[in-house]
Every structure is written in C-alpha cells, then in structure tokens.
Amino acid sequence: MSWTIITIPTLYNLLSKLPMNQWVWKIEDYPYQTEFLELRQRLLYAEKENKKRSKELSSALDEIKRVVEKRENSTGNHTDDTRWNVLNLTSKLFMHLANMYYYLPHLQEHEDSLRPNVVISQGRTGVSLVMGIPTVKREKQSYLIDTLNSLFFDASEEQKNDCVVIIFVVNAEYVNSIAEDVRTRFPNEVQSGVLEVISPPASYYPDLSTLKETFGDSKERVRWRTKQNLDYSFLMLYAQPKGTFYLQLEDDIIAKPQYIQSVKSFALKQSSEWMVLEFSQLGFIGKLFKSEDLPFIVEFFLMFYKDKPIDWLLDHLLWVKVCNPEKDAKHCDKQKAHLRIRSKPSLFQHVGFHSSLAGKIQNLKDKDFGKNALHKAHVNPPATVTTSLKVYQHYTLERAYEGKDFFWAFAPVAGDYILFSFLEPLTVEGYLFKSGNIEHPGDKLNNSTVEALPADVSVLLATEEHNCSHFNGIFENGVAEGIISPSVGKIQAIRLSIHSNSSVWVLLNEVPGKKAN
C-alpha cells in the first residue's frame, strides 16, 4: 500500500480547481466531506489575509523608504521626530506576521506586546549587513563590551556605514544601564547609527512556568531555551527591514580581522538557493540569512518554540524544505547542503565561559577558527626600552620591540610612560603604535601622546614647550601613526606618555619605527 502526501498549498490548488457542483458528495462515500469543506473555506480566508498583509507590509516598507529619503535629503541633522517615525514604522512590521497571534495568543491581550523599546537608534536602514546580538545579565561576567570592541576593531568607516549592530537586551530592567555603558564606550558608533540598543516588552513573553520537560533537560533549562527562541524571533523581525543580510551573533564572541568583507564576499559568490551561510560551527553563532527570508524562518521557529533549541529547529526547517522521507539520511544531508553552506575557516569564536543560563559553564571552542595573529613583528633599530607600567607575566616591552610577542601591562595611571631610547641618535621618518588586539580589543591606549626627544638640544630650546621632548602625535582609537618632521633632526628617544587613569589594561601589538635611509 502506498501513501501520497499532499501539502496544504497543493491541496488548496486541487480543491480550488473543482467546480462547486463537484463538491457535493454523499456522506457515506466521503465521510470527511464536512472537514474538506471547512478546510477549503479556511484556506480561502488564509489566502485573502495573506494578500492583505503582503499589501500592508509593502506599504509600510515604502513609507519607511520615503521617511529615510526625506531625512537624507534634508540639510543638517535629522530631527528626533523623524527618527522616531522610522522606528515606529519599523516596529509595526511585527503586526504583519499575522500568525504570531496564533502561536502566541496571549499577545492579543496587550496592544504593545510587539512594540520594541528602542533606547538607542538613529533609524538606519538600507544597509548590506545587519548584525543581531542578544545579551542577558550574567551572574559572573559580562562579555558584551569586549564583543563590540572585537567587531569594530579594524572595521573601516566605509564598512561601518554599511552595517547596523543591534543589541537586544533580554532583561528589560537592565537595558538603560547597558545603553549608558554603550554610549560611553562607543560614542561615535552610537551617533552615526551603527549601534542600536533595544529590548522587548515584558508582555511579549507567554507564561513559561508550565513547559513540558523534554530531552532530559531540567525545567529551568527548558524555560531558558524556550525564551531564547522567542528572543531570536523578536530580534530577527525587528532587524528584517533594515538591510539585505542578517547575521546572528552572540554577546560572548570575537571576530577575525576583516570579517565584514569576508562575509559579504562569501555571500555574493553563492547561488540564489541558499537559506543559511555558516561562519561558525557552534550553535547559532555566525549564521547569515537573507533578510527577505526572515519572516518565514521566524514563523517556523514560533511553531515549535516550546519544543526544541533554536539550532535544532533550523535543521528541521531545512529538512522540511528539501528532504524526501523515502530517502535515507545521507541523501537528506546532501540536499540540505544546498541550503546550508559552510564557510571555513570560521570567522567567529566563542569566548564566554559563564553561560547566560545561571550556573552553567560553557567552554565551547570552534576548532575551525584557528589562531589569530596577536602581534605584528618589525625590524626596529637597536634601543633600550623601559616603562613604568606593571608588566603582565612574560609579555614584556623588550619582547614586543624585538617582534617576538605583544606587550601587555596592568591598567595605567596618569604619568605612566613607555620609553624607547636609541643606542645611537638616528633620523626617524615616522612611527606606528597599535594597541589592543583581536582577542583583547579593549586594552587600548587612550589619552596618550607620542613625543620625540631630539639629539640636538637646541631644537628643544626653539620650541615653546618646557619639557624634555618634542610633541609629535596622539593616540586615536588605540592607534598612533605619524611622521617626524625633518626639522627635528636626529632622534635620541621616543616616549609614549599616558595622561589619565584607565580602568582597562594596555596592550601594544605593533611597535615599528621607520628609520630614514
């Protein structure tokens, strides 16, 4: 005996082609006549509603584009009113996934259940890449700032202008404190619109106290993973109208240098068939989707949000789309490989030790991430190096200057210095000092200057300064690069001076001086 599987859309197509007079069956011949008639009516209604929602969604997106174009064409900074108009229109897009009310019926009880609390945003849309980072208050340690430092570490202004990073604060009671920290640490990214901070309303979440325990997970773990599914769904829908691609990240990762360009290049090389590109083999980290696919993907997640973790649901979605139940698992994996394409080496590494699930230790590492280059070696002229900073372990200034490792020290205070005294005075054309690295992107020198000590004392006497050196440059975003004027003559020493206390450590990963020929 063989069975024929008919999907709902196929069934509707078959039924809709039948004349109404052929719908009259004898009850004894077709015991499911009533059910079929009811199903046809429901399908007709569903089709009508979908067309209506599609039209409304298109209108909303057109309105967003008009508002954004108006903002871009206006002179000066756009007003808060314009920005909030964009945000309100964006938040209304949630309303157009009508089936959300079926999977989450409690939403009908609260008018604003799907309206995000937008704490930081400039309403940026029309970018190539939108990155979503859910973050939660952890009992032991927060990794969010380090994650953001890593994402922005070597990103160019052009790359930043073509992306949006959305921080989704799961704990609404902490969203303001996290937003303030973000404003303080990343003022330029906040002002330009690269960074956004949002949180969901408490009424978005259903009662999670009666969930069924499955797969041997404790009640608390089932609740945690279920809420996580809802978090991802909300974040994806908010991000959907903002850009072409959506990249799912976590708040405890580091990124490889030039990851933005790598993601874009890999995506543009693919055919139109793919559904997810993977830039990490771990869980839901580094998964890239087409923004146009997000409503469909989210709807699938919401169907089964109580049942399984998000990465399992994604795999099941691919199975539903392409796997033949009459074929074996090997055939299924081959078919899924057309929709889920892996990029190697991995661009993102998990670094968090303390999970967002209270008490859970999660020392997961992506073996395909490899090792990052944490310093760059240069051939420097012979010199004696000294510092007032307290060195951490074996990461000495001597090893950094010799190109063997990076220099790493405890948090500096005002008045600390790093001094390079050349064994013989020489002519130096320029300098480059880089602080922080990909694994410790926040350990940067700030409010610090580069000073050159001329071998000829008369050069100092000719300046208006009364110290022993000639001011030459400052650190900006952890980097100091510049040329030394030929008028200074030969240089006896170069000093890095720190002018304020710092709450973070300092790390120099590149210490080259360019000697004149």
UniProtKB/TrEMBL annotation:
Source taxon at top rank: Eukaryota
Database matches in Pfam families: MGAT4_cons, MGAT4A_C
Domain MGAT4 A/B/C C-terminal: 383-510
Keyword set includes Aminoacyl-tRNA synthetase: no
Keywords carried by this UniProt record: Glycosyltransferase, Transferase
Domain MGAT4 conserved region per the UniProt entry, residue ranges: 96-369
Any Gene Ontology biological process: protein N-linked glycosylation
GO-annotated cellular components: endoplasmic reticulum; endoplasmic reticulum-Golgi intermediate compartment; Golgi stack
Pathway membership: Protein modification; protein glycosylation
Gene Ontology molecular-function annotations: acetylglucosaminyltransferase activity
Protein name: MGAT4 family member D
Provenance organism: Crocodylus porosus (Saltwater crocodile)
Name of the gene encoding the protein in the UniProt record: MGAT4D
